[in-house]
Sequence to fold (270 residues):
Amino acid sequence: MRLTVIGCSGSVPGPDSPASCYLLEADDPADGRTWRVVLDLGSGASGPLQRHLPGGDLTALDAVLLSHLHADHCLDACSLYVAIKHGPAAHRGEPRAPMPLWAPTGAAGRLARAYDLPEDGPGMTEQFAVGAWADRAPVQVGPFTVEPVLVEHPVEAYGLRVTGPAEAGGGATAVLAYTGDTDDCSGLDHLAADADLLLTEASFTDDLPFERGIHLSGARAGDVAARAGARSVLATHLTPWADPGAVLAELRSRFDGPADLARPGAVHHL
Fold:
């Protein structure tokens, strides 16, 4: 599997990064075809995402996997809707099945309202085949097995544990654990257990006042990684007003394995 960071700014787009979006690619051992999915598609992400897709075509994606329905994690699905409905392939009359979009309950209505589509119409269901996550009920998308794990956030939210082909080949698999937005909770122990890479939000440092039950600090992210036995950590969802160096230092004070910050355009091999 190859993970490309598209956007890693927390809560709002930042001056150097759009909001949350991560492109995950893998070659299917059965036929060699490359599968491409995104974990979240937050504000501003659809622009730079095009740099990492064949021909710059957003419709080259095979699926969209949304952790939750806050704007900084889902709203650029509206841009993808436009690309599917009005892009070059649509003008050529090329038929295509709706793109799978997995998300928490109510995603079809949420996205239709965001684009101001008529309430008595199909919304985006002709472009997206919308499925609802269920806690710890795996979904298969090409070579990826995606297990949603309910986490702690003010809205229905899931971390996503993705198992897929390891780049080492030979039938080996790798595990990417993506927290989405959450505070520390019991679900994270299952989500991150022995993960090859824990892609964890670490929105700020512990010294900043922030209500519990919403986000992880660098320290709390490090605690999760350490007790779950994650092999490496990538800290993401840093707010534009956080000090990235301080967040990373706080995380490393609790986790002694490899740890770094997510950076737009960076590629990580699993």
Q: What stands out?
A: The two ends are 5 Å apart (CA to CA). The helical segments are 46-49, 71-74, 77-86, 88-91, 107-114, 187-192, 218-228, 244-252.
